Amino acid sequence: MFSTRLFRPAAQLSSQVRRYASEAPKSGGNNGLLYGLGGVALAGAGYYAFAGGKDPVQQAKELTEPAAKNVPPSQGGPPDKVFIGGDQGFISLVLDKVDNINHNTKQFRFKFENPDAVSGLPVASAIITKDKGPQDEKPTIRPYTPTSDEDERGYMDLVVKKYPNGPMSEHLHAMEPGQRLDMKGPIPKYPWAANKHDHIALIAGGTGITPMYQLCRQIFKNPEDKTKVTLVFGNVTEEDILLKKEFEELENNFPQRFRAFYVLDKPPKGWKQGSGFITKDLLKTVIPGPNDENVKVFVCGPPGLCKAISGPKKSPADQGELSGYLQELGYSKDQVFKF
């Protein structure tokens, strides 16, 4: 379990966080946002509104990056990449197995035709899924950020929360092993490179945690990357905290470089961390300040969270202006990335 030291009184915690930010790595406002929004959050990569009468499949094609060469595996050579972008069409992948995570979230493992292939997704990026039911005029297209490692061969995992009247999440939750789902990618998000920033702050709600986990996984599996990471993660209940075990392992293995702060709308009795809100005062206390070091803040979650913390994106290609708590705390537009 996480130590209660993470939520000491603000004055004590502020001192501790500043000290933490300067430690050498070892090897190895009160207007808060409630998270009881139920089905408002959309899958980790964020929501894409395919509107204006434009064909959603064509919009999906425009979002993908230029194609890379699909190099066949050879002795000592790189593995095949399943998703290569560009003019590559949608790929039909077989659902291999489904694991229940909690009352409304499942992990879906899709297998590749070539068991030695990798997904081909760079960090940070996502894939888009497509389904057209018999009564649908147009296909439903939604983005998801895989939670499996990009170097895993033969399969890819998606963690998906079921939302009422969410056509793609309901379709996925009704799928059985052996059925197929169309996918396309990669959708490039943020071009990560080792040590690009001294410290990153990840502010997430609900399934907005998946791109954050993708970044963490990339950082901490690379022994050359010394980036510090602070996570602030808001949910409704403790059961809703996705990937909590994985983040606990990171904090245990990298105590000088990774810390997680959890905020629950409905905390259980005896809960020792944050409750109810992610506030400006909390962010001021636990994440590095805009002038402390080479810092980058990433935001992903329900529309209400993004509005309160950073302001919304205008479109997948336009970050929009910075507003909300981060603007009030003095961060610049260039210091914030909205998934």
From TrEMBL:
<keyword id="KW-0285">Flavoprotein</keyword>
<comment type="function">
    <text>May mediate the reduction of outer membrane cytochrome b5.</text>
</comment>
<dbReference type="InterPro" id="IPR039261">
    <property type="entry name" value="FNR_nucleotide-bd"/>
</dbReference>
<dbReference type="InterPro" id="IPR008333">
    <property type="entry name" value="Cbr1-like_FAD-bd_dom"/>
</dbReference>
<keyword id="KW-0472">Membrane</keyword>
<dbReference type="InterPro" id="IPR017927">
    <property type="entry name" value="FAD-bd_FR_type"/>
</dbReference>
<feature type="compositionally biased region" description="Basic and acidic residues">
    <location>
        <begin position="131"/>
        <end position="140"/>
    </location>
</feature>
<dbReference type="InterPro" id="IPR001709">
    <property type="entry name" value="Flavoprot_Pyr_Nucl_cyt_Rdtase"/>
</dbReference>
<comment type="similarity">
    <text>Belongs to the flavoprotein pyridine nucleotide cytochrome reductase family.</text>
</comment>
<dbReference type="InterPro" id="IPR001834">
    <property type="entry name" value="CBR-like"/>
</dbReference>
<feature type="region of interest" description="Disordered">
    <location>
        <begin position="131"/>
        <end position="150"/>
    </location>
</feature>
<keyword id="KW-0520">NAD</keyword>
<dbReference type="InterPro" id="IPR001433">
    <property type="entry name" value="OxRdtase_FAD/NAD-bd"/>
</dbReference>
<keyword id="KW-0496">Mitochondrion</keyword>
<keyword id="KW-0274">FAD</keyword>
<feature type="domain" description="FAD-binding FR-type">
    <location>
        <begin position="88"/>
        <end position="193"/>
    </location>
</feature>
<dbReference type="InterPro" id="IPR017938">
    <property type="entry name" value="Riboflavin_synthase-like_b-brl"/>
</dbReference>
<dbReference type="Pfam" id="PF00970">
    <property type="entry name" value="FAD_binding_6"/>
</dbReference>
<dbReference type="Pfam" id="PF00175">
    <property type="entry name" value="NAD_binding_1"/>
</dbReference>
<protein>
    <recommendedName>
        <fullName>NADH-cytochrome b5 reductase</fullName>
        <ecNumber>1.6.2.2</ecNumber>
    </recommendedName>
</protein>
<keyword id="KW-0560">Oxidoreductase</keyword>
<keyword id="KW-1000">Mitochondrion outer membrane</keyword>
